[in-house]
Amino acid sequence: MKDTCRAVIGVAGGQEPHVVALPKELFCQSLHMLSNTASVRVRVGRDERYAHRPILAKLSGATLSSVPEQRNFVKFSFLKVDPAWRRRAPEERAQDKREFAAACLEFAEENFLRTYSLVGTRGDCDLMVRAVAPSLDPIHELHVLLNQSGLMRWADIAYSYLAMTKASLYSDEPTPLEPRPGADSRFLIVYPMWKRRDWYRLPDEERMRIMRGHIEIGRRHITIDINTAYSYGLDDQEFVVSFDADDPGEFLDLVQELRGTESSAYTESETPIFTCMSASVERALDALDGESVRAPAS
């Protein structure tokens, strides 16, 4: 990374490809990171403007949550950090984390992004980035920026799932096509899912009857919110299912009860399962090496 005289975290969308400065105050307030970001530079070249900007412009400033008919792409990226990274000098690790955080902030300015720590809950991945956008272009550009960060030179994407929101065929309740406002719980439990092929050969009425029993059990566990995204033809799995939960024990009881339902007999696979702890970008990155990025005492 080349040092620069000002903090930069990306490109100005909708303009000619170039790097723009982000005020230090905004960067520090949003991520609680060091104000000295002079050497942070992650950028991506492009020949065209963000594909999703014209869509958002037509909405006159509306957010994702105010456009219920807009389908969205959902990307779950699970990262595993090389243990050798933790042996790098503290200032080098801090710089790597700042660059990664800057890429996340660039995306989150106009899209939904949440980070989660899996330190202590999984042995094969350490951090998850959940990104939601109305087109694939910003998700692609996010991961280009992440790949340019120093951290990704020491990390692999252990698991990756792409899906899309759409209305449920089985529930009579309105299905949100974007993350629910204020639905950030302490935990997000995620897994890919496949149904058996004979499930799709059942008559529509039979599938509806079976799923009503499944849904009824879920409604009894009022502290758990389910988010179903669809991957048909987009990725290997058929669904990516995620659950907002504040109490993992409550989710355990729900899944145990669902195992006895008729619908469970038509499940081909629903592993691996990831118990993700919701965390800010800063806290999720700090969990990777146990060290915080803070300004030195004056």
List keywords for this structure.
8 helices; two-stranded antiparallel sheet; 11 strands; nine-stranded antiparallel β-sheet; 29% helix; alpha+beta
CATH architecture tag of one domain:
2-Layer Sandwich
CATH class categorisation of one domain: Alpha Beta
* Cα distance spanning the termini: 28 Å
Count of β-strands:
11
> How helix-rich are the residues, as a percent range?
25-40%
Low-confidence runs of at least 5 consecutive residues: 1-39, 41-68, 293-298
- The oligomeric state of the chains shown is single chain
- Strand content range: 15-25%
Task: Describe it.
- The protein is α+β, with helices and mostly antiparallel strands.
- The protein is elongated and about 60 Å long.
- Strands 3, 4, 5, 6, 7, 8, 9, 10 and 11 form a nine-stranded antiparallel beta sheet that branches. A two-stranded antiparallel sheet has the order 1-2.
- The protein contains eight helices and eleven strands.
- α3 (90-108) packs antiparallel against α4 and α3 packs antiparallel against α8.
- The protein has a domain at 187-277: 2-Layer Sandwich (Alpha-Beta Plaits).
- β1 and β2 (19-21) form a beta hairpin.
- The protein has helices at residues 24-31, 53-58, 90-108, 136-148, 197-200, 204-220, 248-258, 281-289; strands spanning 8-11, 19-21, 73-81, 112-117, 127-133, 155-164, 187-195, 225-230, 239-245, 267-269, 274-279.
